[in-house]
Amino acid sequence: PRPPPDPRDHRALSGPSGAGMFSDRTAPGADVQSLWRSARSARCEAKTCQTGKISTAEAAAQSHTARDAAVQTEQSKDAVQDFQQEVQVDYTGLLSFLQRVEDAVIKELNKNWKSHAFDGFEVNWTDQDETVSCLHTLSYPEAQNQNLQVTSVSWNATGSVIACSYGRLDNGDWSTEKSYVCTWNLDRRGLNPQHPDLVVDVPSSVMCLAFHPSQPSLIAGGLFSGELVVWDTSRTEDPVIWRTGMTDDTHTDPVYQVNWLPDTKHRNHARLLSVATDGKILVWREERDGRLALAEGFAIVAQQVPRSTRLKKAAWGEAAVGVTSLSFSHFDADVFVVGVEGGYSLRCSALAQAAALPRPGGSVPLRAPAEFAFSPHAGPVYSVSCSPFHRQLFLLPPSSRNLFLSCGTDGQVHLHSMLQTQPLFALQLSKKYLFCVCWSPVRPLVFAAASGEGVHLFDLARSKQKPTVSLKQSMSDCPVYCLEFNTKHTRLLAAGDAAGTVKVWQLSSDFTEQGPREMSHLEQLASEIMD
Length: 531
What we know:
Blueprint (H helix, E strand, L loop, with lengths): L10 H4 L20 H8 L34 H8 L6 H24 L18 E7 L1 H5 L3 E7 L5 E7 L11 E7 L12 E5 L3 E6 L6 E6 L4 E5 L7 E4 L11 E8 L7 E7 L3 E7 L5 E8 L13 H7 L3 E6 L6 E6 L4 E5 L20 E4 L7 E6 L3 H4 L4 H4 L1 E6 L3 E6 L7 E4 L5 E6 L6 E6 L3 E5 L9 E3 L8 E6 L6 E6 L3 E6 L11 H13 L1
Antiparallel strand pairs: 1-28, 2-3, 3-4, 4-5, 6-7, 7-8, 8-9, 10-11, 11-12, 12-13, 14-15, 15-16, 16-17, 18-19, 19-20, 20-21, 22-23, 23-24, 24-25, 26-27, 27-28
């Protein structure tokens, strides 16, 4: 027999003789069962979870029984029964009681019907605000950087714009120091307290301001140089429309107060009144060429002022005539009160015809208006304020319709009647200077005072001995030099201080809403003190 072919011999596999040995066939596939899958299925495991299934059950309550626990104590059954029973009323006894007191009740009702205890009383259903809060804190950083002080504040005719003047009231070279007049419209959207709506550069220190009583854009100012200037705040390019200039009629000392006066001859025009420490009280009229011309004038002369034993004799002749403040009576338009550096308050008449001592220069002769001197302060008088309630006071005796306030460097506030020398009362308010005092425009018994310590609000219906509220203008004891009530928005009070800040205080309703029979209370107060 032949041996099998050698596998290494390719001819044995691919040659013609080997073609019948091999052919293509399709064999059935092999299947291997997975023991791992069958084991997981038997244990009910999910392929997407690595842990076993967690059994859950409903457990809405932790106890088998429930009870109502709405109250902390149990109500007895007897109390429930007593409550459900009808209330027993002794109608016979009630009738007997009413018959016994009938006459007494009718008598008291008749007395109440005839009583006038609540005459004039009006119920106020609005919420009472008993706090005084600071509404705005206004300043001009450039003026503060120069250490300038707020010397005066004034509200315009609409009551929405507040103006302040910057200058110096302490030691310094006032004559060459640049100053400013700034205004803010408190009704303007986006009010910036440190960015005034208008800034007017003034070459001399501005000592006082006054808005026109009916034209909201006109404001007058008195300067350290003795000049008087009127600005129109609606003119942004050149707001100066009138000025006195430096003439023989101009004040030779700083102007400490300026007031607008109605012009009786020309209704559309107004006159300006200015007072200064040179002793002059001058009235100016406007001219077409933008000039303020002197119309008439007064002078406080030393012969009209009593010699004060509290002042040095060497300085009296000069100090006594310096006028620092003025206030017109609201009862008689020809009567006004002035405060002088000599410590006196003087009642004056605009109808006076006596000539003052002749002075060199001047286009108009000056008259001597002083008629009556009141008991003095122990130092210069810085502010006087006549009571503004002339219409109501007209019906009251003269003792209360001629009231005015004064304050000065002695730290006292004097309440005076124009009919007597001695004050109705003198209140030692502060150990520091008092710079300003002002009656409320809506409350006959309320006034405010500015001191070296802050702002003080008085309600004489509460106390005649101490302030009702004392307000700190700043964290430090910063002197407050000026203040003014807003006659349109009567809850607002503006105050300017030595730090160059103006604060607008919002008063509580206690200081702005007049109580029943308050005018009678004022008359009673004046009568009691005078007696």
